[in-house]
Amino acid sequence: FELLARVRAMMRLKEMHDTLAEWNRTLAATVKQQVSELERMARLKRYLSPQIAETILGQDDELFRTHRREITIVFLDLRGFTAFSDSAEPEEVMEFLRHYHAEMGQLVFKFAGTLERFMGDGIVIIFNDPIPCEDHAQHATLMALEMRDRVKHLRGAWLKKGYDLDLGVGIAAGYATLGTMGFEGRMDYGTVGNLPNLAARLCAEAKGGQILTDQKTMSRLEHAFVAEPIEQLSLKGIARPVLAYNILSAR
Known about the structure:
Layout lengths: L1 H46 L2 H8 L9 E13 L1 H7 L2 H21 L3 E6 L2 E6 L8 H25 L5 E18 L2 E7 L1 H12 L5 E4 H7 L3 E9 L8 E9 L1
Parallel strand pairs: 4-6
Antiparallel strand pairs: 1-3, 1-4, 2-3, 4-5, 6-8, 7-8
Helix pairs in contact: 1-2, 4-5
C-alpha cells in the first residue's frame, strides 16, 4: 500500500511537472510573440509616422478607407536648398538632410502631428487624422513656431559651413480627402484636394522665417497668435487671390 501511494505521488508530481513545463512553453511563446510585435512596431516606426504604424498593426481598416475630415496641414521646406544641393557633394546633402529631418521630426511627434511624407527638404504634416486632435490648427501653429525658432538656432552652424538656408512654412485648415494611394505592393497615406494645394503654395511663397496662412485659417487662430497681413497672393492652382498672413508669435 505504501509503495502504491509513493507511485501515485510520483505520478502526480510528474503531471504537475508536465503541466508547469507546458505553462512555461506557452508563456515563452507568448513573450516571443509580444517581443516580435514590439520589434515589428519599432521597424514600422522607423519608416512610418507612429500613428500610422499603430493603426496598421492594430488592423484598423478606417485608415485605408477614403474619407473626408477637417484637418490642418503644414508644408515646410528650406529656402536656398536647391542652390545648396547643386553645389554640395551628394553625401554632404544626405548627411545634412538626416540631421534636419531628425530635428523637425522630434517636433512633429512632440505636437502629435502625423508625418505624411518627406520630399527632400520638404516635409508634410497633418493634424487631426488618423488620430483626432482637438484644436488642431493651434497645435499645428505652435509646432510651426517652434520649428522656425529651432531653424533660427541651427542657422548659425549652417552659415559657418556655407549653408545659407532658412525655413518657409505654409499652414491651411479645412476639409480634405484622406486615405491610402498606390497599389498592392506599395501604399502611401496622404491627402488630396484644394487644402493641401493651398498649404503647398503658401509654403512656396514664404520667405525665410515666415509662416504663412490664409484668412480663413487665421480666423481660427487670431485669438491665440499674433500675425501681420501681407499683400494678396496669386497662387498657382488657386482661382482667386489669397489674403495671406505671416504668423509671428503666440499671444
